[in-house]
Each structure stands twice: as structure tokens, then as C-alpha cells.
Amino acid sequence: MSVETIVPVCLVALALAMGVSLVRLIAGPSGPDRAVALDTISIVAAGVVGLLAVQVDESAYLRVALVISLVSFLGTVALALFVQHAHRRRERDRDA
For the whole model, what pTM was predicted? Predict the structure, then answer.
């Protein structure tokens, strides 16, 4: 199989994954569910950009995929810290 046949199939699979994640992002039901869905969407977006880099044979797109991945990681860490601080604040207020 060649790149011309594999890349479109993978793009369709990633589009389906993006659609399912978008449904989870909208439907929820909780904040962590939405955070995981958003993280999944950013990973899928980086995968799409990586596949496009293969399809057009341009390595500059791989840098874009790397930036998407790094920003997604930093956003996930920031959200985790926010949730942790909010949890500690609720425990402190409850104990007081």
C-alpha cells in the first residue's frame, strides 16, 4: 500500500475520533470528562498535522504538530493544578 491510500484512510479515522471527542466535549457530563475530550482533540489535531506532513512531504508541519502537542500538555498540566488547588480550597473551607 502506498502513502496515497494510507493517509486518507488515517485522516478519516482521525476525523471520526475528533467527532466522538467533540460530542464528549459538548455533552460532558463533568469537567474532567471535558478536559480529557479537549486533550484528545488536541492530540488528534497534532496527528492530522503529522499526516499532512507525510502527505505533502514537508517537515515544517512536524514542528507545528510538536507545538500543538506542547501547548496541549501545558494546558493539561495547568488544568490539573487548578483542579488540585480548588480541591484543597474546598477541603480547607469545609474543615474551617
Answer: 0.81
Q: Which three cell numbers stand for residue 53?
A: 506532513
Range of the domain at 81: 3-95
Residue 37: other Cβ atoms inside 10 A: 19
* Domains: count for the chain: 1
Q: Report the C-alpha gap between 78 and 35 in whole angstroms.
A: 11
User: Is omega for the bond preceding 8 within 30 degrees of 0, making it cis?
Assistant: no
CA distance 49 to 62: 7
| pLDDT by 10-residue block (mean), the chain, 96 residues | 87 95 90 88 95 92 94 91 89 83
**DSSP string of 23-83, one letter each residue:** HHHHH-SSHHHHHHHHHHHHHHHHHHHHHHHHHHT-THHHHHHHHHHHHHHHHHHHHHHHH
